[in-house]
UniProtKB/TrEMBL annotation:
EC number(s) on file: 2.6.1.52
Record-given protein name: Phosphoserine aminotransferase
Annotated organism of origin: Actinomyces howellii
UniProt-annotated binding residues for L-glutamate: R41
Lineage of source species: Bacteria, Bacillati, Actinomycetota, Actinomycetes, Actinomycetales
Gene (UniProt): serC
Residues where N6-(pyridoxal phosphate)lysine is found: K196
Amino acid sequence: MRVHNFSAGPAQLPLPVLEQAASELTDWRGSGMSVLEDSHRAKNFAACAADAEATLRAVAGVPDNYRVLFLSGGATGQFSAIPFNLTAAGGRAAYLNTGQWSAKAIEEARRQHVEVEVLADEAASSYTTTPAPGSYTVPAEAAYLHYTPNETIGGVEFPDVPEAGDVPLVADFSSSYLSRPLDVRRYGVIYGGCQKNLGPAGLAVLIVREDLLDRARPDVPAIWDWKVMAATDSMLNTPPTFSIYLLGLILHWIQDTGGLVAMGERNEAKAARLYAAIDGSDFYANPVEPRSRSRMNVPFTLADPALDADFLVGAHEAGLTNLKGHRSVGGMRASIYNAMSDEGVNALIDYMADFERTRA
């Protein structure tokens, strides 16, 4: 039986994509072998990677003056690559800190000997808020402004795109990639791990404006050098071929189900129903300020934490899995990414109501 998987990542994938991958697993494109077994230099895989890029460009509206890279190491690898590619040692960069993933990016930039200026730090609210527009000023001399549009752990999402002026805006979209329409032209660099909305773990997708490819330090390792990777079509090393294959299938699924406008509407409706159920109850609570609530990751607590274990046992029995909150936050967390169906969200809401009736 397929469960409703609320994992924060690796996350639930679209069932039609999994079924297609299963049907092709032992004989891909009539080759008599799996995509897992084919060479990344072979004609079939070259066409697969090219199709994934073309479909991403079509779905996200990527302009011609941006390069698309498929990179190993996930978003965490890019925490290192960003300062390597955009600053000189000792250079200055600006960050907005809204949670644990922002903080990790900041820490890694400092390890790369970047002078980090944190323009806004939401620690005082226990990372349940986002900075208000106009509450900070981006230094003109900053090499870039980095922010995390959606914080997976805290369930916090920016309701707007930060204004950076002429400073390149860099965004870690790992947990909200292609979850709604995106104006790529607002950004210098968009990146994210694929294991939330775009496929399995291990692959990062990076979209970078071409004029930024000439800023890398001379000593940046080639594997992290975006210009080198762009020149080799992301194949300086053997890429995560199966992840790229699945990415392509998921991009076609997004395209076939209405594109990003329809995806954004579905995600907004799912989140609105779940937040309404939480807000309409005295038994459940969400700690995030309403304007900064995530559409992808919905944390909530029970009135009596002693009931958490029973809640999780009952949820598992009802086919609702991976609802335990992150250890640093506690409570519950429902991650309702693109592949989470209306049925799954409704099943969770019904279960929450039943549990409250019997335990409140």
